[in-house]
Amino acid sequence: MFRIIGASFGLGSSKKGSAFGPHVLLSHGLFDTLKLIDPLIELGGVVTPSYLSEGSGGSPKNLKEFLSFHEDLKDKIAQCYKENKKPLVLGGDHAISITTIETAALITKKRIGALWIDSHTDINDDKCTPSGNIHGMTLRALLGEVPSLTKSPPSIKAEDITYIAVRDIDPPEQEYIRKKGIKLYTMRDIDARGIGSVASEAIQNLSKQVDGVVASFDLDACDPEIAPGVGTPVAGGLSERESHFIMEEISLIPNLLSLELVEYNPELDKDEKTAKLAIRLLQSGLGKRII
Ligand SMILES: [Mn+2]
To answer: Residue range 66-74: average pLDDT?
Structure first.
């Protein structure tokens, strides 16, 4: 059974408006809409930051604020797992997944697979990052290689990461991904093979090799034409149907631990296009079918 948790944190990105994402999605009737699909879904509230400052420099940028928010969010996520609920997490920028996935690993003690649907690979460390933004270091932190961001042992292994829809990788990330042999399905793979073949293979293989899958859907995986309300848009992304297909496959994962939708930034949205898309996609992620 799912429990919706909002994670109102936007300081992991250069455009901090994603902090308002959960509130705006909920104000569009997300909860009632999802209840039609999953009548047992619960509303677990929105975690808002308790820090008073607004931004600090260095690399990672806004480290103090992130660590403070991490403390605020982790108890809510831990509570979900302790009560056998699946967190349905609304970001916030992708930095929040450091907390959600680290907490999943600590509480469930399972071997966790990260299904990363994103135009970026979010696997810079604090030295090679071009921006200093935490949302570009999420997976590297979860691998235990950015000590300032996490004090826990590594939450995931490189072999248990699978990317879908990638099309913008920084050169040091490319080198790291090649060296570690991380599984990556780029937009080119989707062009060549079609979404059905790519998503089914990616998701089923990951699900079989781990104990539990955390599915993290960054809205910038979608094409900016259909999802303009994101901080770091990249042209050439998923169509609406391709995005739905991935979500439909996610809804079939037998060992799904949690589902996250991140990087929705209402300040950058056009005519609520992205909010409405996000809600439609979450319906598919919870099992809505055409017939
Ligand atoms: Mn991301």
So the answer is: 95
Going from the Cα of 291 to the center of ligand 1, the distance in angstroms, rounded, reads: 31
Under a CB-based contact definition with an 8 Å cutoff, are residues 104 and 22 in contact? no
Domains of the chain, by residue range, sit at: 2-285
Residue 32 CB neighbour total at 10 angstroms: 9
Annotated active-site positions, please?
Answer: 94, 118, 120, 122, 135, 218, 220, 263
- What pLDDT digit, counting tens, does each position of 178-198 carry? 999 999 999 999 999 999 999
How far away, in angstroms, is 58 Cα from ligand 1 center? 20
pLDDT in tens, 12-55: 999 989 999 999 999 999 999 999 999 999 999 999 988 766 67
**81 C-alpha to ligand 1 centroid (Å):** 23
Question: Distance from the CA of 86 to the center of ligand 1, in angstroms?
Answer: 21
- The residues whose Cβ lies within 5 A of ligand 1, an ion, are 94, 118, 122, 218
pTM score, whole prediction: 0.98
Tell me the pLDDT tens digit for each residue of 77-113: 999 999 999 999 999 999 999 999 999 999 999 999 9
> Using one digit for the tens of pLDDT, what is the confidence trace for 202-238?
999 999 999 999 999 999 999 999 999 999 999 999 9
Domain 2-285 -> CATH class: alpha beta
Q: What's the pLDDT at 54?
A: 67
